[in-house]
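Side project, low priority. Logging it here so it doesn't get lost.
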Amino acid sequence: MFRGFNCSIIGASHVKKGIVCQDSSGYELHENYAVAVVADGHGSKKHFRSNTGSQLAVESAIETVQNFFSDYERIANELPENHDLILKNIEKQVIARWRKKIMKHFSENPVRPEEKKQFTEEEFSKIPIESYYGTTLVSAVVGKDFTLGFQIGDGSLVAVFEDGETVMIMDYEESSPANITASMCNKNAPYLFNHFYTNRKKILALFVSTDGLYTSFGSDYDFLDYHTIIAGQLYDMQGFESSVVKNITKRTHFGTEDDISLSCVYDEKLASENIMVLRDKIEENKRKSTARKIRKSLGK
């Protein structure tokens, strides 16, 4: 049986400035699959409704996945040979659904004077409505015999396998020029996604997070070790939730002091059966971390 968890914590810098949390997160569980999603609203001047944009992005991803997997057996059978085409279609529909949602929100909530006052008339006239709601998106789906994910913009997707191996299963490469973050509000958004599919190895847990979590760590090693540690706590969901929320809240005071969202879905049976495997892996990671620190101190 699949289980899940999500949280979105406002960044320390946003608290200081009186800015709302621009991250959103969610998950949904079904008998045969589960989906985890996070979105990071851009928050800069022209993206003044990005908190709403991120919420609608999470909704759009979950609804689109649910629509595609309504006939689970059919889509699961088609994925091995046609996963690239299926994922591209999912991505296009996520963007189309999101655009429909933001236009509905805009029609019901015209721009208020306080939103517009930071621009000149000329500046405001050049901003597309989609940009008001600009956001990134990271989504992951785990099924009985497959795992897939799709992402536009920054953020991370981490998989913990049943043997304790933990990897960033999809390395994000910036799709836009000049290091501009790819966004759901871009005109060519459907073509800016990265995605993956695998059916080779059983995944114990999938984690998706906004970039505020990654930037709170000093290295990829530390970031991945953190996910192994929290995967080892999944057998105790009540304790897990309070522990992770406390830790992430603390982490908003480090790094960029940005909002942090984390969403996870996991196989309850595998998490319970592999507690000792994960604990052994955690101890192994500690030894490797110590060795790295020693080599670094010796200049090696």
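Brief comment: The first helix runs from residue 12 to 17.
Revisit when time allows.
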